[in-house]
Write a structure and sequence with these properties.
The protein starts with a helix and ends with a strand. The protein contains two helices and eight strands, in the order H-E-H-E-E-E-E-E-E-E. It has a domain of 136 residues: Beta Barrel (Porin), CATH 2.40.160. The longest helix is centred in the first third of the chain and has 25 residues. By secondary structure, it is mainly beta. The mean pLDDT is 80. It has an eight-stranded antiparallel beta barrel. Helices cover 12% and strands 56% of the residues.
């Protein structure tokens, strides 16, 4: 009997051993999860993130032009008057001197000016040369480059006088030369002009301005008044009191 069941027992033992080997290679308990203590971030619940307040300091444009102002000063311009039209013998260098006063309201100005003349190198043939005029004007003024420069464009209208007195070859009983009123013109004029100004001394509200200016005078009146049409250019030295405007 023992010899009959021995082969069967060995066969069952081999089958059990093989099944255990297969189960160990394909099954069994699942491996434990890896240690993620230092490799994963903690899972926080949803929270409200508050961004810090950002303060932006917007500096105002300290000066955005001028709201109002007063100007007064001295002007000197070289005249381009064709002297030969007044008298073929007339030669010299004509310079116009004067004063200017103006009021600035916003971007507009209103001015009054008076101008006289001086003829340098006037020949001995002439006893007197006189050209003067005065008038009122208006125009536009603007500032740029942080109010460093000011630009003006405008026009002026008024009246003037030309007087040219010559010496004659005759003398009176006292030996003085007899004079001849060679030419006299009373005229009306219109003078458009432009100028560019820069401060040479800047104070909080007041300043001294150096202004480069030029304009063209058109004369009207008697037939020969057009002989006085001329372009002049020069410099203006102005004292200004101006109230700046602000743009926040």
């Amino acid at each position: 009997m023992l010899q009959r069941f021995l082969p069967i027992a060995l066969l069952l033992l081999l089958l059990c051993a093989g099944g255990a080997a297969v189960a160990q290679s394909t099954g069994g308990e699942p491996p434990s999860p890896p240690d993620t203590t230092y490799t994963t971030e903690p899972d926080y619940p949803d929270t409200l993130v508050m961004e810090p307040d950002i303060y932006v300091d917007y500096e105002p444009d300290v000066m955005d032009g001028y709201a109002a102002g007063l100007y007064a000063g001295f002007t000197a311009e070289k005249s381009g008057l064709d002297l030969a039209k007044l008298d073929p013998q007339l030669t010299g260098t004509l310079v116009m001197y004067g004063g200017e006063y103006s009021v600035l309201i916003g971007d507009w100005y209103f001015n009054f000016s008076t101008v006289g003349s001086h003829m340098y190198d006037l020949g001995s043939t002439y006893d007197q040369f006189l050209l003067d005029y005065s008038g009122y004007g208006t125009g536009y003024e603007t500032s740029f480059f942080k109010n460093t420069f000011t630009f003006r464009i405008g026009a002026e209208a008024g009246t003037g006088t030309l007087k040219l007195i010559k010496r004659t070859t005759h003398t009176d009983s006292t030996g003085h030369d007899l004079l001849e009123a060679y030419r006299r013109e009373d005229f009306f004029y219109l003078r458009p002009s432009v100028s560019l100004g820069v401060p040479i001394l800047q104070l909080p509200l007041a300043s001294f301005l150096f202004r480069v200016a030029g304009g063209y005078m058109m004369a009207f009146g008697p037939e020969n008044a057009r002989d006085l049409n001329n372009f002049s250019y020069g410099a203006h030295l102005m004292f200004a009191v101006r109230m700046p405007s602000f743009n926040f």
